[in-house]
Amino acid sequence: MFFWISCLAAGLSLYLLVWVFTRPLLQKKGQMHHMPGRLLLHLSWPWILALTPVCQPFVSWRMRRGLSQRLLTAGLGQWCLPEHIVAMQLFGLFTLTLVSALTLQASGVSRLTHIVLPCLLVGLVGMLWPRYWLRSLARQRQLQMLREFPFLLDMTTLCVEAGLNLHGALQQAAQHGPEGPLRGELRHALADMRAGVPRVQALQKLAQRCGVPAVQSLVTALAQADQLGMNLGPLLRSQSEQRRVERFLRAEKLALEAPVKMLFPMVFCIFPCTFLIIGFPIVIKLLAFDS
């Protein structure tokens, strides 16, 4: 009788464990179509959504403001919230700590001190990884915008000088410009204008989503020109020339940084091999001379 009661309790415990760990997947399955196509994020997203209500009270307004700006810059503001990033950090901490503990225990490590410290270090890496991923994603997106911006600005300048107004020139740039995040943000701004948002306000939101100083400078210049009634042709032409000068200076800066970046592999990879090839015959002759 006791054996059957134990089996029933074990089966019930296993069922409850499976139910707890699979319930987020069943409840949040319909919300997964908003995510980017990353396999690891797709697999962990239901449990991140389950942890979000737990993390939401601990997100301060300062943290929320900073994470919201980073999410907008990274292009994730439409589906991801600041508490989702905090939930990712908590999920990474728990998951990597548990996996590392099970791995060390399975490898034969029995001392508690040899398990706790490596698990805490691995868990700390898992907690910091979402912030690093978000920052790198925003940086890559901004670099891509900087590459697209001069061409879109030249197209807008040509359309304005050909007789179109600013709205028509922006529509032509959004329609025929190079495919990328800046073109998508420009289309978003044009959609806001069609929805009734004032043009200056829509462009300011565009600059806020991009997080690129060049776009912010252009939006500020367009807002001042709209208030003062200035001619947009010379203004856009000067902005285009300035952006191309900045692009040339960035390329020159990267070219000057290349020798410094090559110093480490040269010192630790190329120079030892060179010294070994040069010094090996000398060492052989010295050994032969001593013998």
Can you walk me through this structure?
It is found in: Cell membrane. It is a multi-pass membrane protein. The chain crosses the membrane at residues 46-64, 85-106, 112-134, 263-284. The protein has a domain at 144-243. It has helices at residues 2-27, 39-55, 61-74, 82-106, 113-161, 166-176, 181-194, 199-210, 213-228, 232-290. With 291 residues, the chain is mostly helical. The protein has ten helices and no strands. The chain is flat. The termini are far apart.
Shape estimate? flat
- Count of alpha/pi helices: 10
Strand content: under 5%
Q: What structural category do the secondary elements indicate?
A: mainly alpha
- Find the count of extended strands (DSSP E, 2+ residues): 0
> Uncertain spans, ≥5 residues at pLDDT below 50?
14-21, 23-34
Q: State the helicity in percent bands.
A: over 70%
Q: Give the helices and strands as they follow along the chain.
A: HHHHHHHHHH
Mean pLDDT: 80
Radius of gyration: 29 Å
Biggest sheet: strands, sense, closure? none
Distance between the termini: 87 Å
